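Hey, resending since the last one bounced:
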Amino acid sequence: MHHVAYSTGVGKSHLYAVDAKTHTPTALFPADGVREQQDKKTYGPCPGPLPKNSFGSHGIDLRTTGRGKGTIFAVNHGGRESIEVFELDATGKTPSVTWVGCVVYPEHASGNDVVGLADGGFITTNFRDPKDADAFKKMGAMQITGNVLEWHPSSGWTPLPDSAASGPNGIALSSDGKWLYVAIWPAQQVIRYERTGQTWTRRETIATDILTDNLGWMNDGSLLAAGQASKMPDVFECRPPACHVGSAGVKIDPKTLKATRILTYAGNDSFEGGTTVLEVGNEYWIGSYKGDRIARLSIR
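The structure tokens again:
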């Protein structure tokens, strides 16, 4: 695929495909003509499509299912706390999606990121209780606010053992399904879990020295952790124009677990508060929770 799937965040409420060559964005959802065809076998309990203009996107995952085809799992906060699922077709000139279902989060759970599984299920981070007004204050004190949840069509929701944490954020799964990585935002860490039988066992903790937000894979197989070059609660106290929240990327070797800072980008009036870093050609693309654009930096 020559397009990069991108979520604009809760405020803008769109999924976009961005042409990696021309940098032209295309709105995938909501968009005119988007088909809605619920997969009731996999997502039977879903109450139906979202009401118009209620999509509140957050973390996303694209699971490739064939050449130019894939499934997008999107954390949603608009209208309901849910994972919304779309089938992507990028075989034509313009990519398009079909909404195929949803899974509503358990009570007191609010998602942050998600990674899709082969059976239509997924693993997602429960960042905080959406009804807890003190959640971010608790994160500043490193108190537990959430955990990691796994969902399958056949068995429903299951919490991962030993996954309770303060602000669990980004999530990534190795291609063989053996290793799961979870970003612990306020603690500046990534925690690794190993698949053991039908469950997961917590293994290593990796220090990143950044507010670890989202996780992704690099072309060489390394894990790329992105986040803010800041500390809690500084990220909330930083106010433009006197202060801007910087962005950072950390490369983690999955064999040695060595973490190396490969990217630091000081915040400015145009862009700050990076949450995601993608390796696109000879550039790093940085997404943010504080703006309406993507920053592009040359890889040197």
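Residues 208-300 form one domain.

Sorry for the duplicate.
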